[in-house]
Design goal:
Blueprint (H helix, E strand, L loop, with lengths): L7 H4 L2 H14 L2 E4 L11 H7 L4 E5 L19 H4 L2 H13 L2 E6 L13 H18 L3 E5 L10 H20 L3 E5 L4 H10 L6 E6 H4 L5 H12 E6 L14 H10 L6 E3 L8 H15 L1
Helix pairs in contact: 6-7, 10-11, 11-12
Amino acid sequence: MKTAPRPASFVSGFGLLFVATACLAQDSKVAVMETAFGKRADASSFEDAKMAGYSAMQMHSGQPEGMQRNKPIDSSIGLAIADDPSQLARWKEESRKHGVDIISLCAGSLNRCQIWDKDREVAMRIAKQTVAACEKLDVKVMLFPFFGPSNFQESDEALQGVADFMREFVPYAAKKNVTVGIEAPVTTVRVLELLEMLDYPAHLKIYYDTGNLFEKEDIYETIRKYCKQHFCEIHIKAAGGLIVGQDKIDIPKLAKALDAAEYDGWLVYEANREGKEPVGNRQSILEIIRARQ
């Protein structure tokens, strides 16, 4: 597969910057989502992550061949990583080669599925294939996104549909010892309604995103109140800007909220619609960590 050219921001001043922060990054739970490099399920992303100064990454589980935006989804399709075991073997090889660990998988293609009705069969397959890949990679968290037709913010019918899907799916994930993290453009209270309907399964949590939720709720108070019990991992995403701390997010307030919640999990940079800036946002995450020390 042809490797996309790296953004200039990866390289500019990279050498000194990497030396100055490498030890802190190695000792801290700082990671990057693969899509920050414009890639999905691409083994070359490990080199990109290393070049940007990261030692850990959230990988995308891939886009099934034939799945196209705004087109009906073929119920027979699945993930390439399930059909071709050599792909996961390549990820492991590149992970070792570049010293970049895989800390979670994102089943991003589920964003295009209406999971409880017309796309239930294919969505269940993709979700289970992603969990199976987690097991093979010894990864303990799968991100399950809800940014498409399965958004359940307003509709109680949608909420019930998601609950029905999870009643079948979560026990499978539990058998594989994989925690499913729900990331959605819905309030945390709404996700908690879902968890309550399901009696708070141990392997179903919230995957929190600072940028997605900033305009919907007080992210600092939400983290203080719910993080310790209900969050599995956190995306550090800018809100109203390109780089966290140069946007609407207050780094000292975020650090205090994480301290109050005693959060010791991964802080994972994810790009937003403003653009991709993995180096600058890695520095922001390190600022959050320093503010906690």
